[in-house]
Amino acid sequence: xxxxxxxxxxxxxxxxxxxxxxxxxxxxxxxxxxxxxxxxGSDDQQMITKALxxxxxxxxxxxxxxxxxxxxxAEFVEGxxxxxxxxxxxxxxxxxxxxxxxxxxxxxxxxxxxxxKQAVLNVIRNAQEALTGGGRITRPAQGGSGP
Length: 147
Hints:
Layout: H1 2-37, H2 43-66, E1 77-80, H3 81-96, E2 108-111, H4 113-130
Antiparallel strand pairs: 1-2
Helix pairs in contact: 1-2, 3-4
């Protein structure tokens, strides 16, 4: 019975992945053209670069949906945890007004950037959903756990 449920979930995942992949291909073409037309080093070009990176992340997620039955390991690399968090918050800040922490110290370590980014996005989205009556999302004060 469990194997039947897993097989059904696999078929559902493949169907969802297929339905998302088709429009995503069209969506990815426009930012690519805009990136090439934007002034080198401009804020627009940087935001488009980040948008393209996020489209790539969605494409990788779709691939993982298609391959969900095989155990996937996180890819650990040497990186800066604060940079990953900063870049992720930047993606959420522009359209939603989330304050962006500034001047965060570097924290080099071995990490799985994609997994960290997904976790931070989930935390921010959950916080946004919890703020139905208004409010702000901020990072805790240095050295404290903050409200």
